[in-house]
Amino acid sequence: MAKTLELEFVTEFGKPARLSVENPKEPIEEAVVKAAMEEIIASGVFTSTNGNFASVKGARVIDRNVTEYEIV
User: Fold this and answer.
1) What is the pLDDT of residue 40?
2) Domain containing 33: what range?
3) How far is 42 from 36, CA to CA, in rounded Å?
4) Which positions of the chain have pLDDT values less than 50?
5) Global pTM?
6) Would residue 51 count as lying in a domain?
7) pLDDT recorded at residue 2
8) Residue 27 has what DSSP assignment?
């Protein structure tokens, strides 16, 4: 089972932007995620083709099950 924490931002031009974190530390605390996202925005380290990150839109965990089959 693979989990991804997807952080959703709004850019300075009002466009969406996302960052994904593979295998996030659990349990995921909303307040900690929000604070980290605000720090990301304040640092200005990340940007997208739609501009700099300007505000927090949301976050979600994507839980994915993968079953591999060996075909011989």
Assistant:
1) 97
2) 2-64
3) 10
4) none
5) 0.85
6) yes
7) 86
8) S
